[in-house]
Amino acid sequence: MTRFDLAIIGAGPAGMSAAVTARDAGLSVIVVDEQPAPGGQIWRAIGRNAGARPGNLAILGEDYASGAKLAARFEASGAQFWPSASVWHVDSPDDGDKSLTVAWDGVTRQFTARALLIATGAMERPVPVPGWTLPGVMTVGAAQTLLKSSGLYPEPSLLLAGSGPLLLLFAAQCVAAGIKIAALLETTPPGAYLRGLPHLPKAMLGWRTLLKGHRLKRQLGVSGIPVYRAVTDLAAKGAERLERVRFRSAGMPVELEAAHLLLHEGVVPNPQLTRLLRCEHHWDAAQRCFRPDLSDRGETSVDNVFVAGDGGGIGGAMAAVHSGRIAALEIAERCGAVNRPSGDVEIVKARDALRAELAVRPLLDAMFPPPDWIARLDGDVTVCRCEEVSAAAIRNAAALGAPGPNQAKAFLRAGMGPCQGRMCGLTVTEILADARGESPERIGYYRIRPPIKPVTLGELAALDGSD
Q: What is the β-pairing status of strands 260-265 and 107-118?
């Protein structure tokens, strides 16, 4: 079985940065990613857009275009790269190498590594509103994926609903591409901006991010897009597909016709692999999500298992780059490839840069707070899309004695579908916490088991013994 010094799961900003740093130190590195090319979600298809579709760079913006340089360095680093591959099991013995099982090119392959870096990034927070399963309703992130990978936009009439920087960024990208937005429905609660003011002095360390945000708001302000503020009670309506959207704006009922509705309420760390490895997690009240416990160098509670990027807490692309470098330098030191004094100096520099990037986070969390109404969901709104489990069914399971998501899974099959709870896990936790009058920390999360991604019998049967 092939053995590497470092295995990296994810070829986004954190994974690419870590791979380049580790290779510069002389480590043997393998990087596995589900996409056909490096870039991650933030810089998805950056190589193809920079080469074959340079016009897209002007639409997607400078932050997206900046990923091309790191992607080029990664491809030249000498790290072994397995694209279009799915890691479906990771094993971490107490005193041994990390073992990874990967479905790649129709074959299941296995290899080991002295250290593991999980750089799987974030996923969009699910927004379970009535009608969100109708054709024509999708997330902003999914629409942005179509734009980056295929240059496609939803057709009019188009509504954007939600809160957060990504919602505003995508709206600006639509404006730059000449795509008409029928309306922007902002769910940010009244007074949120004022609550952010105490965090402004510290946020000035990240003044570049603040300036970008100001320019974005100004661009949207002169675009002529109708904006509905303080939106609540959002619901998608239609027979076979989306036809209209109902909501309340500042307490007044509104109904708009729409062919497409894009939802967004922020992003959260992707916890599947760290949960599989039984890493310790804690509830982040500011971002309303679980995140793994990490040392100041990115190590989890499991020895030689590290997390870098948004998978350890939402910080954005450049924060991910710095955290990937920090983790890779620490791993290189442990492997004896970098001596401790010089490596520590580089880590301190990277940590200072990371601190500056994260300085704006408390301000953003206050200005765009995660939706608290998700915990109060009830009725027939679908929570688990795979098994079609409603919010009312989850509350009923709590009333029958289910103390947490794993027991609710036994009652209802919620979380047992192909997504393994990715789309419903946080929502189930919050509803159960509300129903039982307990904290999400106490309620907990699904117990993740392999395979964490669907794997075919053919891929299992074609286990490559040579690896």
A: unpaired
Report residue 464's pLDDT band, with 50, 70 and 90 as the boundaries. low
Q: What are phi and psi of 82, to 5 degrees?
A: -110, 95
Above 60 in pLDDT, residue 57?
A: yes
In this structure, the number of other CB atoms found within 10 A of the CB of residue 339 comes to 10
CA atoms within 13 A on the CB side of 162: 30
Rounded Cα distance between 166 and 173, Å, is 10
3-state helix, strand, coil in the chain (%, to 5): 40, 20, 40
- For all residues of the chain together, what is the average pLDDT? 92
The residues facing 282 across adjacent strands are: 291
Taking alpha carbons only, the member of 33, 286, 310, 62 closest to residue 176 is 62
Q: What are phi and psi of 422, to 5 degrees?
A: -60, -40
DSSP for 352-420, written as a single string: HHHHHHHTTHHHHHHHSPPPGGGGG--TT-EEETTTTEEHHHHHHHHHTT--SHHHHHHHH-TT-STTT
Tell me which residue has tokens 């509830």: 283
Query: Which residue carries 């295929």 as its tokens?
Result: 150
Contact 85, 102 (CB under 8 A): yes
**Residue 148 in this model has a pLDDT that exceeds 90:** no
Q: What distance in Å separates the CA atoms of residue 421 and residue 444, rounded to the nearest whole number?
A: 13
Say what the pTM is. Answer: 0.94
The pLDDT, as a whole number, for residue 467 is: 45
Statement: residue 151 has pLDDT above 80: no
The amino acid present at 293, given as its one-letter code, is: D
User: Where is 41: in which H helix or E strand?
Assistant: none
Q: What is the pLDDT of residue 214?
A: 86
Tokens 């999980």 -> residue: 118
Q: How far apart are CA 216 and CA 346, in angstroms?
A: 34
List, in order, residues 6 or more apart from 360 with CB less than 8 Å away: 203, 205, 206, 209, 210
Per the CB < 8 A criterion, the answer to whether 37 and 54 are in contact is no
Checking if the pLDDT of 227 tops 50, the result is yes
Residue-wise pLDDT for 381-410, tens only, equals 999 999 999 999 999 999 999 999 999 999
